[in-house]
Amino acid sequence: MSGTNATNPNSMHEFDAELTNQVFEYMRERLSMPDVPLDFPGDTKVLAEVLSGLIKPEGNPSADVLKLYDEVISRAVVSGDSPRFMAFIPTAPTKAALLFDMIVSCASLQGISWLEAAGSISAENQVLRWMADLSGLPESAGGTFVSGGSAANLAALTVARDSGRQRVHNGKRLPVRIALSQQAHSSIGNSLGILDIEPLIVQTSGYAMTKADLERALAAVDPSEPPVVGVVATAGTTNAGIIDDLAGISEVAREHGMWFHVDAAYGGAGLLAPSVRSQFAGIENADSITMDPHKWWFSPFDVAAILYRNPKLAASVHTQDASYLDVLHEDDSLINPTDLAYHLTRRARGLPLWFSVVVNGTDAYRDAVEASISLTNEVAEYIKADENLELVIEPSLSVVLWRRIGWNAKDYRDLQDRLIESQTAFVTPTSWQGETVGRFAFVHPGTTMDMVKEVFANI
Ligand SMILES: Cc1ncc(COP(=O)(O)O)c(C=O)c1O
Questions:
Q1: How many Cβ atoms sit within 10 Å of the Cβ of residue 141?
Q2: CB of residue 89 inside a 6 A radius of ligand 1
Q3: CA distance 337 to 165
Q4: Would you say 425 and 454 are in contact if contact means Cβ atoms under 8 Å apart?
Q5: Pick from 179, 314, 165, 154: which is nearest to 250 by CA?
Q6: What confidence tens digit (pLDDT) does each residue in 104-125 have?
Q7: How many CB atoms lie within 10 A of CB 42?
């Protein structure tokens, strides 16, 4: 293909065998790689030069543009799905999920409303039900898939705020507060800012928020201040993988009539792993749960599940009101995915997970999650046995915080540069109680102990 024929307005939409073969060939090659290359963060100046002038009236030959993508653009993106990506929270989509994502794109598959998309919504709901069952939520629970954990948290906290206002202020737009600990993800603080909710920061006596921590914070609340209508617990903190005392916090929430939101964006996949499942006790009492399939449930970006105990309540908060949309709400026995978060149009982004779970089976999911947990334990033992290394805390889920004795912040930053330069790994430092330390987050079942040893060989 080379540009388009300006005299035929449909030319861009006609089947092009050559273009199709070029793209399919690229995808086949990528999918067949045992491990995708890690690649590099990229040089913005070089990229700007290469991209300059590409958008022009007559277009460009597709083979040239694909070559440019392959050789320059794609190499300037660190591959989050490489087993050597151990920073932030990586991703590790299955082949089935990646392939089905292409089908979703190819078919422009949407999952907005029952009127238009019963097929995709039924399948998405099947996998949401699986996640709800793993959490122990009742049959009445339901939800939808949004773009990420941040969007899911915002959707849930909007419902928490409005149902809290309903309870304590008769629905009036008066101030309310939501409790959280300092370990809550940054998206929780951002959501509260967007929603104009004051946070009540719960001081924790240990690393996780406990029942006693929350009780102490609530007991100190001045009754003249805005009422606390909800609490956010984290099931797998991003920095350290720590799970709050969900059972204890849920008891306090119930006692005070507060909304109980669990941010399990990263850690939720631990529900699949018998070795850690007991740490999630109490999640079944949640009013809402965030879980990100693009983290540890082996789906490609971008997808997060938001589950509500009472989806009707969520729909009453999020449904958009417009005359052209009235037709979507004729049957009020069915809740549209579009009515469960801040969005209207949405692609059926839950389907790659659905396809992959249905094809691979839930045992394969369990085993893949357990693989990262056992690697975490193995790495912890390795660190304990090395006199130059120390564990910062006992690891939780699949995050390891470690210290190289005698190192300062610059040493960890230099290590990051060395490792990416040599394509050994992508490992970024973090800070823990004011100190810069090393951090690994594992979600890829293909990450091996040998790869981690290669990192330590560089210190
Ligand atoms: C606990 C937690 N919540 C929320 C988020 C935000 O998720 P996303 O990046 O998908 O918006 C993250 C991301 O790492 C997370 O770990």
A1: 23
A2: yes
A3: 24
A4: yes
A5: 179
A6: 999 999 999 999 999 999 999 9
A7: 15
Measured in angstroms, how far is the CA atom of residue 266 from the centroid of ligand 1?
6
The pLDDT value given to residue 282: 98
Report CA(373)–ligand 1 centroid distance (Å): 19
Can you give the pLDDT at residue 332?
Answer: 86
pTM score: 0.98
What pLDDT is recorded for position 7?
Answer: 80
Kindly report the protein residue whose alpha carbon is nearest to atom 2 of ligand 1.
265
* Cα 284–Cα 287–Cα 288 angle in degrees, nearest 5: 95
Of 63, 81, 76, 77, the C-alpha closest to 20 is 63
Question: And the tokens for 39?
Answer: 């690649």
Please identify, by atom number, the ligand 1 atom nearest to the C-alpha of residue 88.
14
Ligand 1 pocket: which of 85, 191, 292 to mutate (most atoms within 8 A of CB): 292
Distances from the Cα of 168 to the Cαs of 10, 174, 229, 358, 380, in angstroms?
57, 9, 8, 44, 47
Q: By C-alpha distance, which of 109, 30, 103 is closest to 66?
A: 30
Is pLDDT of 4 > 60? Answer: no
Nearest residue (CA) to ligand 1, atom 4: 149
Average per-residue pLDDT for the chain = 97
| Ligand 1 atom at minimum distance from 148 CA | 10
